[in-house]
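Input:
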Amino acid sequence: MTTAISNTTKFDAAGFEALLAERAGEPAWLTERRKVSWQAFEAANWPSSKDEEWMRTDIRLFKLDAFKPTAGVPVAIAGEQPLLSHGVDLGGRVESVNGAATLSELDGEIIAKGVVFGSLSEAVTQHGDRLQKAFDREVVSPTYDRFAMLNDACWTGGVVLYVPKGVRIEKPLHAVSRLSGAGATDMTKTIVVLEEGAEATLLMESASTDAESAGLHNGTIEIVVGRGAKLRYVNLQNWNNRTWHFAHQKAVVGKEAQLQWTIGALGARLAKVNQRVALAGADAEAQVNGVMFTQGKQHLCYNTHQHHEAPYCRSDLLYKNALQDSSRTVWRGMIQVDEAGQRTDAYQRNDNLMLAATARADSIPGLEIEADDVRCTHGSTSGRVDDTMIYYAMSRGYTRQEAVRMIVTGFFQQVFDRITIDSVREALGEAIGQRVQDLPNQ
Amino acid sequence: MSEFIPVGPITDFADPSSTLVEVDDESVALIHAAGSFYALDDVCTHDGGPLSDGPLHEDENPPAIACPRHGAKFALTTGAALTMPATQPTRVHEVKVEDGQVLVKLTV
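Output:
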């Protein structure tokens, strides 16, 4: 079993030149774009605790030199069965290892409708000029911070989904990214475009092939949901607990369009994710669901942003976190309503269940409202498992441990009830249920 | 069971100085002051600030280090919170010098 990692290259000037040489088949505009981003990366500093966004997330132990750019010919690795696709009749699937595509399949009847789904690396060499528009849109700014610059310069692999106007895909599409071996990197871009009236379900997940190898994910996700289109998007982060995970994710939801975006965050040593939703057209709707379960010394930081740019839009965000051991979560949520966003209906909520006295959860909801006719509400709770509930369950014959497990499972039920895809609900339930089974006596 | 883990030669740590070192995936503030070494969690228990970036007060009794964010002081020997806004101690770890190498053993 071998991987596509070169042993000598690093993320330095020579490594970047090697990456460009290997990707000589890419269109000229993309190569130029990579060079501009690389220059910006070299000139920039890493974020520090002096930056407001990073003051609760310490990355001083992160050393980029410990990781290698993806190079060489990808080799498929037999990983565990993906969680989200179990028992699902898929319309297409994409697999990658260490940021290099190893599998790309799509049903013939879906291809016939003009849908494009596969590796972004391959797509840019085949349909580069058509994809330029999607890159130029810069849904995620390539200069947002040094991680975004690095991604824009050195991305490999990735996923692209394009659904033409009025096309409805019944079967879910699935993509899994794997990290294999010490120093492995997954530096991917995901681009999703649904044209007017299109519908699709995209399930994406990540996994490590072993529990001990330190890996790096530095990715971006850019989603455009066109007028009246509907996208159900699921992203399950399930790296091992030695992986650094940095991500910039943004969806732009058009007029009368609907987005249901579900995030599961279970793995990673340290995760720092910016998840943004822009409601750009009138009467757009976004539902954001988040589930986190942390243990050991994990540190997961999610910054969410609901941006109401147009009137009559609705956004509803619910994050539920359970924390064990000395793990830590940080959630910073912002609802921003522009002056044009009249009759906005926006909600954000974060609930934290503290399963150990040494765990820590930071919840920082925020509102920035410039319109004068809106309904914007937010809430946050943090608490331990209620002794009264344990007492009641024990009086009914359950052991203390059974009672705690039942209460933790019930804590997540509220967010599971919002997820409309059966396989996702079952997969998240199973993954969390496994961790709940391992809970020690409280 | 944790063990003593080398973090670098003694010459890497001037006296006085405070340095961030990585010990078994954890951030530790290694402090060299008045001829002695001290090791504390590099985390202010008030707001998570990086103690190793803060000013040393090695001449005070007890010798201390302050958080750069809000000025909370922690005793180098015990990790006790000496001033507000911190109220909880930070962990201290064992340090020893052998053959010119500084070694740290994490407190579990």
